[in-house]
């Protein structure tokens, strides 16, 4: 059970709630803040003050005053008209994260919603009712208006949801669970859709996958080091301390620990003086990507506990300020940074794949084939990896450098942060497949070298990975192997790492 406060949500909490299905509970003190901000909205309405978003139109219509009798209809019209998302839906875990992050922001007590609305969002999480939210249509400023409007539709009993493994109408899911839809009142519609929760939710889920994938890349690279009889001197701590980047030193340390005791790796001058960069510079390249991931994590942790709607209510309603916290620029830049960082894991991995399969670059059977010439072996796996790497180069183009004015030029600079987050997620899926290909090739290479000579940790990994993809004894449909390995890497969190007898992912991860 995770207690939501509006202030203390961590990425680990999000992992537990969104990826492991943990239930949530709302902190009473936070709910009191919600109640107090609601009282401020009611006073504004009763005093007939004109305040943006409560009794005015939106965007370019901000100067249009709305009568007291029409404020509820204003909110309903807002949600329906803004639900313009198109394309495939966000993954269900991202939708769950969106609900969680929107709820957490509202619990800060700056938004003026009724407590019952926060309670309904909490019920969606605990009943595992997740809005079906189209991915395309957000500019990443004024909030993620289109995606969050599809989220808000569910609260009024409209739209579709993921429920019990199926997609159904929100009204049907409510009927099955005994929930009742709400009639939105003053400011509530705007409070639901002004925010960065679509890009941030996609960003957090992407980061959680990226972090695990970055660690997996080191285990797979270690396997490649053994398959190519790589030189361990390049991982000597003195080299990395001399440069001073802690992430680089940490990668080198984990690689040394993973390869401890291996009789397949070599020393400088034993077989050759230097390895190619794709082996020798693993700590430098992977470490730089870890630096970017650390930056991204910091920004995501701030944004998950941020008030990003507009206007915000302070001092018990004495101060209502219309600002721009909904602008997604901080997350847009972070997502573009993570895109580049993750693409590099695949880029250097593909070069290691080439060294594993190219007979001009190693002394292994050409393309790791059981019968070179008659059988092509891993030849086309490298083609596939190269294609994915090339696709990533296109996806890695920064989305945040673009802006198109909207709302009759009232909203004249936007972040495109949701596009950046979506492209980042796609890159991560491609990276995992490239690493899966490297893993398959490295497994075959160490088998030729002699698995009895492997390090303890890599041998544990080898044995478990061989349960997923068997040895290549003849050509077969390797697409199935790549997808099986990809799925294993995505789902598997324990049992494959093992720097000690416990074999637990988290124990190894603690060294990150």
Q: Mean pLDDT score, rounded? A: 93
Number of domains: 2
CATH superfamily of the largest domain: Fumarase/aspartase (Central domain)
What is the distance, rounded to the nearest whole angstrom, between the alpha carbons of the first and last residues? 26 Å
The CATH architecture of the largest domain is Up-down Bundle
Number of separate strands: 9
Task: Report what the structure shows.
With 512 residues, the chain is mostly helical. The protein has 2 domains: 2-195, Fumarase/aspartase (N-terminal domain) (Fumarase C, Chain B, domain 1, Orthogonal Bundle); 204-509, Fumarase C, Chain A, domain 2. It has 19 helices and 9 strands. The protein has helices at 11-19, 28-46, 71-82, 92-106, 115-126, 145-155, 170-177, 188-193, 197-227, 237-243, 246-258, 277-280, 282-303, 329-357, 379-395, 417-449, 456-466, 478-491, 505-509; strands spanning 2-4, 24-26, 86-89, 130-131, 134-136, 160-163, 166-169, 312-314, 319-321. Strands 4-6-7 form a 3-stranded antiparallel β-sheet. A two-stranded parallel ribbon has the order 1-2. Strands 3-5 form a two-stranded antiparallel ribbon. Helix 1 (11-19) links the parallel strand 1 and strand 2. Helix 9 packs antiparallel against helix 13 and helix 16 crosses helix 18 (478-491). Residues 494-512 have low confidence and may be disordered. Pathway: Amino-acid degradation; L-histidine degradation into L-glutamate; N-formimidoyl-L-glutamate from L-histidine: step 1/3. This is Histidine ammonia-lyase. Pfam families: Lyase_aromatic.
